[in-house]
Amino acid sequence: MINTSALRKLQPEFEARHNDGKYSSFKVSTFGRHSIYNGFAAYTAGMVFGVKLSDIKSALKNFKLQSSKRMQVEVKSGITFVNDTYNSNPGSVEMGLKSLKDMKIKGTAHIILGDMLELGSVSRREHSAIGKLVSEMGFKKLYTFGSESFHTSRSAKKLEVNLHFKDKESLSRMVLSGLKKGDVVYVKGSRGMKLEEVIDTIKSKVNL
Known about the structure:
Blueprint: E1 13-17, E2 23-27, H1 33-48, H2 53-62, E3 72-76, E4 79-84, H3 90-102, E5 109-114, H4 123-136, E6 141-145, H5 149-155, E7 161-165, H6 168-177, E8 184-188, H7 196-205
Parallel strand pairs: 4-8, 5-6, 5-8, 6-7
Antiparallel strand pairs: 1-2, 3-4
Helix pairs in contact: 1-2, 3-4, 4-5, 6-7
């Protein structure tokens, strides 16, 4: 079984029921609801192949992603930075936003979205759909970067902040000006957009 309240933690947890009816709790080192399902699959495989329960727990808790790949989480000056800039497509953006929504955020979520590249003729439609999703999920602050992400910004409604930028420096300054302790900065975009530069700039200058 999966305890949904555990999804709200930066290091999610799940509970597994064994054949003897007893339960064990497992912590997963990576952020996001998809990590829960991946962790549960790894637990199941481990049990099938006779891996010790303690070894499964340790492996899930201490698993590290390769540097510069997939989702990375770091806390600095009371701000949680979620770097999800390795790749981007409509499905992964939706999953990332849902994972962010699952979190118990004390402050405000600042969502920075860049272009989802290589979508071809459906690009405008898919970027617009993401903007609508941001609104529907109740997020309040959206910052976009890239020619296609302009459509994301334009389709997002009823936000406190909804700004589109043509340069990363201006974007970084604007986000910095509105940060408070307890806030989360979530950054998502295709690898070619190099939005990790925005996270690096903000982290280097934030001092709350």
